[in-house]
Specification:
Elements lengths: L1 E2 L4 E5 L2 E5 L4 E2 L7 E8 L2 E6 L9 E4 L7 E5 L9 E7 L5 E6 L1 H4 L11 E5 L6 E5 L5 E6 L5 E6 L14 E7 L6 E9 L8 E3 L5 E4 L3 E5 L5 E6 L6 E4 L4 E5 L4 E5 L11
Antiparallel strand pairs: 1-4, 2-3, 5-6, 6-7, 7-8, 9-10, 10-11, 11-12, 13-14, 14-15, 15-16, 17-18, 18-19, 19-20, 21-22, 22-23
Organism: Crucibulum laeve
Protein name: SMP-30/Gluconolactonase/LRE-like region domain-containing protein
InterPro entries: 6-blade_b-propeller_TolB-like, Oryzine_lactonohydrolase, SGL
Length: 268
Amino acid sequence: MSMKAVDAALASNSSNVNVPVTELDLPDPVQITNGGTGPFKGSLLFVTDGRGTRPPSVVLVNPLPPNNVTVLLDSFFGRQFNSIDDVKVHPSGNIFFTDTTYGSVGHVRPPPSMPPQVYRLDPNTRTVRVVATDFIEPNGIAFTEDGTIAYISDTGFLSATDDQTKPATIFAFDVDKKTQVFKNRRVLAYTDAGIPDGIHIDTKGNVYAACGDGVQVWNDEGALLGKFFFGSNLANMVFAGDGKLVILASNKLFLAKIAAKGLLPVFP
């Protein structure tokens, strides 16, 4: 798969500049990259939707030429995942990811063979286990700085063309200290526009989600603090240093300068 280079427009203080985006020509096992983070052991960590019979996977990609790929996981004890959506590294160094059915909905994957669930992968032993279930579409994932609370967005509303009651909801969980299974599920927030896609946390514990009208921000009690309003669907965002939030729209990148700091990614 090739991640095509595009012209990225960064909006900062109402001024636009053009910046280059590096194109990575990735080998065939990497099909439809979706979530990503890094650096992880000196590489980029991606999860993929898969395509046709080629399975969804968790992969490490060398950011330097020749961009070689290491597949960490591409099945659950021999059963293919549905279409892996997002990934985060826990402070313990373990990898957590969400598995949706959007590949099947988009007709690029076969019908689901397992429930939409959240998984933990130990990158050292390659062991994998389910840590949370009972979702329609578990999508975005994030952890607090100490790793004791996990946030998962359920975006079942996205594929519910005739049912307005499906979730567009961010759930909070306690992360078990021993097993890292997610416990004590509760609602953090229900979005008022679109779905909460990618989610991230700042150093004060506030939760950011890419929604149908922009980036919405809640505190850790679920109170809506405000919005970066775009009036259109967004997919994700990422903190890029202190006071900088890069926001991903459908075909543009925006840079917002804010009085907040994002959590640094885990560097195993």
